Amino acid sequence: MYLIKFIKKDKIATDTYTFYFTKPRNYRYIGGQYSEFQLSPTSDSKRWFTLSSAPSENTLQLTTKINLKLASSFKISLWNLKEGQTIHIQDAFGDFVLPKNLNQDLLFIIAGIGLTPLLSILKESLNQQLRIKLQLVYIVKDTDYLVDLKRYQKLFKSTRIIYTSQIPFKPNLIDENLAQLQLKHKIYLSGPDKFITKLRDHLIEQSISESNIISDYFDGYLEI
């Protein structure tokens, strides 16, 4: 367990905020991984969040949606953190990370707040000057989420962003993208848990091997 200090919060989209914390010198993680944040010693003050910061950045960041009228007690406490206030964070975990072999096409199918692990991956890829071949299907209701992605699209010329406003999302809308990939290629899914479950089932029906599907589930969010 590591002690970190709250720095600030910034609004990045509709009801969505990034919280910044100090980073311990010996804290290590890979872009796309998640960790447990503990605001106080009480048992209900712990929550898992994907780290939206890149490992090479000098702060730790988490990004989450907060509507104060509907927020849980945890998110209200998170919102009310004061500059310099200390909390705890655990070691990072998760396999939603880039493969060792980057010489292949990667398809990311992301919904809403599921963007956070991809932001960490993109920032770190840029910092490390990695060459990646990335396709993205991003399903989102609010177009202001695309601001950062457009910046990365310009930097990674092999990145393609597809925006769809069709809600609820129908899994067959991504079949055109699947047709462009070989079945051995990795497919990354990130978003609300019900969305991911439905999409995984569809991919398996399309003869995609479960071993080639990497998922990051976000509990407590409405299905896209």
Produce the secondary structure layout:
Layout: E1 2-13, E2 16-22, E3 34-38, E4 46-50, E5 59-65, H1 73-79, E6 86-89, E7 105-111, H2 115-127, E8 133-139, H3 146-155, E9 160-164, H4 175-179, E10 187-192, H5 193-205, E11 213-218
Parallel strand pairs: 7-8, 7-10, 8-9, 10-11
Antiparallel strand pairs: 1-2, 1-6, 2-5, 3-4, 3-6
Question: What does this protein structure show overall?
Answer:
With 224 residues, this protein is of the alpha/beta class. The protein has 2 domains: 2-89, Elongation Factor Tu (Ef-tu), domain 3; 105-218, Nucleotide-binding domain of ferredoxin-NADP reductase (FNR) module (Rossmann fold, 3-Layer(aba) Sandwich). It has helices spanning 73-79, 115-127, 146-155, 175-179, 193-205; strands at residues 2-13, 16-22, 34-38, 46-50, 59-65, 86-89, 105-111, 133-139, 160-164, 187-192, 213-218. The strands form 2 sheets. It has a 6-stranded antiparallel sheet with strand order 4-3-6-1-2-5, with no helix packed on it. The longest helix is centred in the middle third of the chain and has 13 residues, at 115-127. 31% of the residues are buried.
